[in-house]
Amino acid sequence: MYLLALETSCDETACAILKDGRALVTSVVASQMDIHARYGGVFPEVASRQHVLSITPVIAQALSNAGITLNDVEAIAVTRGPGLPGSLVVGLNAAKGLALGLGKPLIGVNHLEGHIYSAWLYEAVEQNPPPEPQFPLVALLVSGGHTELNLMRGHLDYQRLGATLDDAAGEAFDKVARLLKLPYPGGPMIEKEARNGNPAAFDFPRAWLEGTYNFSFSGLKTAVLREVRRLEAEGRVLPVADLAASFQAAVIEVLYVKTMQAARQYGVREIVVGGGVSANAALRQAFLRQNEFKVHIPPLKYCTDNAAMVAAAGYARFRMGQVSGMEIDVLPTWPLS
Ligand code: KG4
Ligand code: ZN
Questions:
Q1: Is 36 among the domain residues?
Q2: Residues enclosing ligand 1, CB less than 6 A?
Q3: Do the domain assignments include residue 209?
Q4: CA-nearest residue, atom 1 of ligand 1
Q5: Ligand 1 centre from 303 Cα, in Å?
Q6: Domain membership of residue 205 as a residue range
Q7: 280 alpha carbon to ligand 1 midpoint, in Å?
């Protein structure tokens, strides 16, 4: 059973084809990163117009990679939200056109649930599929727009344990990168600089928000800003690597410790980590070093935005009969729970 998925929530135009629920046949991502880099962030109108140009070639490429035709596709999944309205509309309309033309079901997917479901994927060419995540589990979602911890007792069942009260983790990485005059996108640049820096060089604050599973990263960002201003006022060359490493250590410690606490409190055995920030090597190492819980973190290329994750979540919805009607609209601020 082939499922075709589209993702256009932000600045990646993506199409993926999934076979029998978990086996990923192909994942095509047309990135607009170079276009937005000159603005220092995503320019919404430019993004939606670029999706219009890329969506058809990306679908054609995915079908060609998979060696199938549209007639082989049994269902169409698409990101409905959250995301940029003008970008989401392009993917949703393309998906409606495909579903209508083929007479196949349309499945609207939440982008955040896609990031979580990327942990279910494996490459179709793999001989031994890895075991799928087992419920109940705690899911840490860390992206550019969202940071939250969810307890999942079953498929598509999200109980939010906590979320960021201000900046998302990825947003904090991007803002601090700008303070350190690193180019867009900030997350990978901070990680690169941090590799040569001392994580203990600066003692940046950790917002523990004791007794909750909420997060806060704006105080940390301000602390970095203050340090940068102080160093600049003294006429010093910025120790970018040390600042990046110390900032990254502060973010990761809070994400890691709170996720572990939640997993213990709710008595789960497994943890899923997803979203763009889960590409961060230091975050991955923190989770992979421990053996108290089985941790599922997707391969790097499925951490940042892609359509494979939308396909995996779409299949979970399809299997549970959660098919959408043709009247659905985009949901730019769609919470997971
Ligand atoms: O999930 P994603 O691709 O898009 C959203 O749904 O937001 O996440 C993008 C975010 C950006 O803030 C980016 O800076 C961050 O993920 N990111 C990283 C890394 N790679 C991407 N943050 C830290 N380390 C990385 N290696
Ligand atoms: Zn995302």
A1: yes
A2: 10, 115, 143-145, 170-171, 173-174, 185-188, 191, 275-277, 279-280, 304-305
A3: yes
A4: 276
A5: 8
A6: 137-297
A7: 8
Between CA 138 and CA 129 the distance in angstroms is 22
Distance 164 CA to ligand 1 centre (A): 15
pLDDT of residue 88: 98
Position 194 pLDDT exceeds 90:
yes
Taking only the tens place, the pLDDT of each residue in 103-153 is: 999 999 999 999 999 999 999 999 899 999 999 999 999 999 999 999 999
Q: Whose CA is nearest to atom 3 of ligand 1?
A: 304
User: Is the Cβ–Cβ distance between 186 and 178 less than 8 Å?
Assistant: yes
Q: Do 112 and 166 reside in the same domain of the chain?
A: no
Task: Establish if 30 belongs to a structural domain.
Answer: yes
Q: What is the pTM of this model?
A: 0.96
Amino acid of residue 238: L
Query: Is residue 334, in this structure, part of any structural domain at all?
Result: no
Arithmetic mean of pLDDT, 35-60 = 94
